[in-house]
Amino acid sequence: MSDRFPARVLNRLEELDDAVVLEWPGGEVTAAGMLRLVRRVTAALRSAGAGPGSGVAFMPGVTPVGFAALLAVHLVGTRVSGVRPGLTAEQLAHLLDDRVGWAVVDASTDVSAVVKARPDLVLVDLGPLGAPDVMGLDEDDDLTPRGRPEDVARVTYTSGSTGNPKGAAQTYAAFEQEWPSRAELHNEVLSDLGSRLDRYLLHGTLNSVVMVDYALVCLVHGGRLVIPSAGGSFAEIVERHRITGSIVTVPKLLELLSVVRAGTGDVSSLKGVMVSGSPLDPRRYAEALELLGPIVFQGYGQTECGLISMLAPSQALASENALTSVGRPLPRNLVETRDGEIYVRTPQQTIGYVNEGDIVREQAEVFTDDGWIRTRDLGGLDGEGFLHLSGRARDVIIVNANVQYAGPIERALASHPAVDQAYVVGVPDPATGEAIEAFVVLREDVVAGLDDELRRIVGERLGEVCVPRAFTVIDAVPLTSAGKPDKNALRLL
Can you tell me which residues the record assigns to a coiled coil (predicted)? Predict the structure, then answer.
């Protein structure tokens, strides 16, 4: 069996044959049917002139043929740039640079914006390729992966919340070391989660590395991908489609907890949810395990190096020390602490940012000369091998020239029983440079003296210098397109 991506996935589809591997509003797709879609898209890409090293902007929505295309673009050996929807014209032009010659699109893509940004791009339209089996659609039987080890396989872009997105580049050599499609690299925790993904919710965007990683884990373990019908909250989608496994952000997990508390929905089908995007407060984690049962996993990773560590519910329930961690590093991942910051080295890590200009300094800070990735997170390993985070080196507020980390302040605020979520940002202040302001989502109605209580908690735990100057109660935190708390939006409130 070839180790070259996506050979293992395609071989698994051949083994599954007539088993249903994907369910969507348009029906069901068997493993054999998915292979046919891969062959169609492969033929279309090669007919359009794309091949090893070709730069392809990947832009379709979440559909069966879209998922097949994600396998096909790597089968052909192209350099895939994931272009998410919702970009500004400037950001889109920035991503569609002269390294990109082709764009994979479908009905959900704003093709007019693409053409305006790059009228010379060759468009590969998935629309006709996703039609039911009919005569006249070419299918390429050559499913030999063509990616060259030294070529860039994937460019994963950040959200661009601070300007133009920056892209982390991963070679085919590194891409083929990725753990999702290689069952022999799944430790006990990954195998446990994989066994729970009978009906895995595939939604959002196919340019989400985390979303696709666990979709591949689902297929390796013989599960079914479920693309939901439109409409409804996250909890309603889980109930409607009897989802057993999903990736969730912290806000989505809190939504599930609210539903369980209120008894307004049935999410009992869930067997395994992976919290991703930002660490879960230990108090909330314990509450989630109590209300949802032993189904909540936690992962810690970064765009530049992928999944770093993972925590199983069984570990979190067995040890208070584990509960306050983000789990143990995955096999083959090396983790060390330098001056209080976490550094990581993995076989699948990216080689650097493809952009230039104002991020050259950041690249030098993140991708070190000795081959390690500087996460810019604070923390370290304990004696049992669990990785603990104590803050983010980047999420800082500088008050009177003194650096204050937002993470510890947010955790202190979230420890109050009336506070469901807490977020801290820095805002300009003419006297101190920046000042700390807090935004809280409450579990109860506002109680008298809450601001004073919160000030007291922060002051006692962290000192008066960390006490926010103002508190604002919000109904819900604004989210970025990636589903993470949008602190830039909070600053504008």
Answer: none
148 with 204, same domain?
A: no
Tokens, residue 308: 């770093």
The answer on 341 and 224 residing in a single domain is yes
List, as one string, the DSSP characters of 53-85.
T-EEEE---SSHHHHHHHHHHHHHT-EEEE--T
Residue 1 lies inside a defined structural domain of this protein: no
Q: Measured between alpha carbons, how far is 21 from 200 in angstroms, rounded to an integer?
A: 10
Tell me if 459 sits within 8 A of 467, measured CB to CB.
Answer: yes
Residue 2 within a domain = no
Tokens linked to 74: 């790597």
User: Which residue, of 175, 198, 213, is where some domain finishes?
Assistant: 175
Contacts of 116 (CB under 8 A, 6+ apart): 89
Helix or strand holding residue 437 (H, E): strand 433-442
- Among 141, 175, 209, identify where a domain stops: 175
Q: Does a structural domain hold residue 98?
A: yes
> Residues with Cβ < 8 Å from 406, sequence gap 6 or more?
391, 392, 395, 396, 397, 423, 424, 425, 426
| Same structural domain, 380 and 344 | yes
Residues of the domain holding 381 = 183-392
Are 226 and 162 found together in one domain?
no
Mean per-residue pLDDT of the chain = 90
79 and 56 Cβ atoms separated by less than 8 Å: yes
pLDDT of residue 196: 98
Question: Cβ(62)–Cβ(202) under 8 Å?
Answer: yes
Q: How far is CA 80 from CA 54, 59, 77, 205, 361, in A?
A: 8, 10, 9, 15, 25
- The tens digit of pLDDT for each residue in 46-65 reads 999 999 999 999 999 999 99
Cα–Cα separations (whole angstroms), residue 263 to 97, 260, 302, 389: 50, 5, 35, 33
Please state the pTM of the whole predicted model.
0.86
How many domains, the chain? 3
3-state SS, residue 474:
coil
Please write the tens of the pLDDT for every residue from 289-319.
Answer: 999 999 999 999 988 999 999 999 999 999 9
Q: What are phi and psi of 161, to 5 degrees?
A: -70, -15
- pLDDT over 90 at 239, yes or no: yes
Domain harbouring 296, CATH code: 3.40.50.12780
